[in-house]
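task queued by scheduler; priority normal; single chain, no ligands, no partner chains; default sampling; output format set to structure tokens
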Amino acid sequence: MTLKQSPLTHQKQNKSIACLRIPSFPWQVELMRNPKLADHSVIIAGTKLDFVKDFTSITPGVISDTNFKIKNSLSARIAVATSPDLNDVILGMPLTEATSRHSGVLIIDYDKPLYELVFNVIIENLEDVIPDVESVAPGLAYAGIWGLEALYGNDAQIVRLIAETINGFNIRIGIADNKWLAYTASLLSRANSGRKVTSEPGQFLDKFPVESLPIPYQLIKQFHAFGLTTMGHIADMPRGAVEAQFGKIGGTAWELSNGIDNRPLLTKKRLLKVSENIDFANPTVNMTTIVLAIENLLERAYESSQLNQRFARQATIQSHIAEHAPWTMRVAFKDPIGNKNQALLAIKSKLNISKIPGPLENINLTLCGITGEGGQQESIWKEVKRDTDLHKTIRQLHSRLRITPPVYQIKELEPWSRIPERRYALVNLNDSTYKSEVETLNKVG
């Protein structure tokens, strides 16, 4: 694990940002899930909506020009990630064009929930050693490494620390003064190593192809039509001329080509959590053994000083499985729980309807949403209590289903109308509906 510097004039840096990039992250996760995919050419196919949310989050706001609005995004199938052998398939390329270049390629649907779960584990591990971490999208994160020299040593030592923390993935690390330069530096780094930008940004980016810019595939083709094939070509032109031809998005491309990126590091507030881990002597799928292990972990967690006289709102179970992506199960408690028995009951209920994909090598239990309150005062009005209980149930369903629960209520519209369809209507019950109703009842009471 090495840190290679740009072979140009050294320039002192004030605030260094490290970019952690896992190339074709969805492909790497799918390979962990099914190692046999190593023998196939694979395209991870998603929608333009997936692409805009993940890939373009490298530089928020890039796809904003009216000429490049996403239309029919849910039905437009594109290449979101590929196996390493498909070098000529550009991310965002229409799937029809990608498959026309490679007949017989294996198509796998973009499994966003899985990729997010796996990457969240990576971020949590990274936050244990570096406090300032921003998770951008599955496979991409930034970390503020200023002030860590006294703790870990020079930048090369920090790169080694990150690579060891993110074990099991082929990663690239870039270090620079801003996010965009750090990202482009990671494009030049080798496997599990780092690259640091120590030169003038324009010189460093001069030879980068325009395909490296987080812009729509259609705009890349237009740049090529004008003979603009590298960032240096774009940077050499006046910004006004680029914006006049390509709109606001052209101006953003010009800024990036000149290494201009003023985005701050947006770190999330770390919440208190308690984690316990147990390793199995032999991988197991025996439910009795798994439940006993979880019960043991819950007992240890609730006996810890962090949970003394406190309650948890959520439990997360994570396990490693041989030749498979890590398995994760989240359980949101209906009410904050302050003892192992109630927590175990909720976890067993979710475990009974979950499918374990293979023998578990270990179990890591994390309790989060720590609070000092174990309950709440109930209203003396029956209507308010009824609506509050139903509101809780809807929130729990939303947490489990990840969608708006299909719960409806019959409401009067025009009961005097001659037309039956106008007398009543089915209204979807959601958080806002019940909040307004509860507030109204409270005022009446």
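post-processing summary
- The longest strand covers residues 324-337.
- Residues 382-401 form the longest helix (20 residues).
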